[in-house]
Amino acid sequence: MNKYTVFGNPIAQSKSPSIHQMFAEQAGLNIEYGRNLATKEDFIPTLIDFFQDPKAMGCNVTAPFKEQVAKWVGELSAAAKIAGAVNTVIKREDGSFLGDTTDGCGLVQDLLRLGVQIKDTHILLLGAGGAARGVLQSILALEPASLSIANRTQEKAEQLAALIPQDNFIGIGFNQLNKALQAFDLIINSTSASLTGELPAISDSVISSCTCVYDMSYADKPTVFMQHAQNLGVVNTFDGLGMLVGQAAESFYLWTGYRPNVAPVIQSLRSTL
Ligand code: ATR
């Protein structure tokens, strides 16, 4: 029986073990998938210890260890290099470790599943933290007409935009966004504001003129950002539960070569929120 786990702190709330067990059931595989609570000091020794077991084939890594593990693995995927972070470690046959990040894949696959077009559209990404950084490359790969990152702290948005220099990809502050005349087709909220029930301070007209809002957070009811957009007349509002399952599905595929069907897993998780 192959072994997997997720490292994080806190970790008790992680849905990864149940998601991966549902995937394994679909694939007809018998796997063990655990949870590992670690501290900054003991994370790497615990990780090394986990991989001493010849049955340990891979792990997921969540906050606050995604950057730390990126420095530990022998090789990084192109996406993980841009993100500067790893959420999936793959043990290869020769015993070496590849670090990848599947968050961007999870997001774009969820948008496609929901019928949200990316190619040739104007996209606004709110926030310039780790969550935004992890999805940039995947969004740009689908060739939107433009991708604008807007952040409360303008400098951080500019720094992210500088990672992938291209004319239709810019970083701005909320102030500039409120003055811009540009209308967006899709607004993606990657800020951590939803977690504390806050709204990013962008003007209502920016939101009301878009056709679709996607919040990377999720809860048992629409997030404050989704509710705000609905009140402003945005018809299509989605939360990030599908992204969570999508990033897990990509990890599972990297480990096993099996592509899980995400729809029943999203449905099952939704019923337990
Ligand atoms: P994560 O890994 O979730 O992206 P992070 O790296 O701490 O977390 O980044 C949090 C992001 O949410 C940042 O873009 C932050 O904006 P600042 O760079 O200006 O701090 C954004 N954020 C958090 N709370 C916010 C709020 N109330 N309004 C707007 N943006 C907020």
Summarize the structure.
The protein has helices at 16-27, 43-52, 66-72, 78-83, 103-113, 130-133, 136-141, 154-163, 174-179, 204-208, 224-231, 241-256, 262-270; strands spanning 2-8, 31-37, 56-61, 75-76, 88-91, 97-100, 122-126, 146-151, 169-173, 186-189, 212-215, 236-238.
Would you count the extended β strands for me? Answer: 12
N→C terminal distance: 30 Å
**Beta-strand share of residues:** 15-25%
What count of domains describes the coordinates? Answer: 2
Given as residue ranges, the uncertain stretches (5+ residues, pLDDT < 50) are none
Mean pLDDT: 96
**From the helix content, strand content and strand pairing, which structural class follows?**
alpha/beta
Largest beta sheet: what is the strand line-up? Answer: 2-1-3-5-6-4
Order of helices and strands: EHEHEHEHEEHEHHEHEHEHEHEHH
Helix content: 40-55%
Label the overall shape.
Answer: globular
- Number of helical segments? 13
| CATH architecture assignment of the largest domain | 3-Layer(aba) Sandwich
Q: Which compounds are bound in this model?
A: 2'-monophosphoadenosine-5'-diphosphate
Annotated CATH topology of the largest domain: Rossmann fold
Sheet with most strands: 6 strands, mixed
Fourth-level CATH superfamily of the largest domain = NAD(P)-binding Rossmann-like Domain
Cα radius of gyration in angstroms = 19 Å
Task: Give a written overview of the molecule.
- The protein has 273 residues and is of the alpha/beta class.
- The protein folds into 2 domains: 2-101, Leucine Dehydrogenase, chain A, domain 1 (Rossmann fold, 3-Layer(aba) Sandwich); 104-241, NAD(P)-binding Rossmann-like Domain (Rossmann fold), CATH 3.40.50.720.
- It has 13 helices and 12 strands.
- The chain has helices spanning 16-27, 43-52, 66-72, 78-83, 103-113, 130-133, 136-141, 154-163, 174-179, 204-208, 224-231, 241-256, 262-270; strands spanning 2-8, 31-37, 56-61, 75-76, 88-91, 97-100, 122-126, 146-151, 169-173, 186-189, 212-215, 236-238.
- The protein binds 2'-monophosphoadenosine-5'-diphosphate (ATR).
- Residues 127-132, 151-153, 156, 190-193, 198, 200 line the site of 2'-monophosphoadenosine-5'-diphosphate.
- 2'-monophosphoadenosine-5'-diphosphate is lined by residues 127-132, 151-153, 156, 190-193, 198, 200.
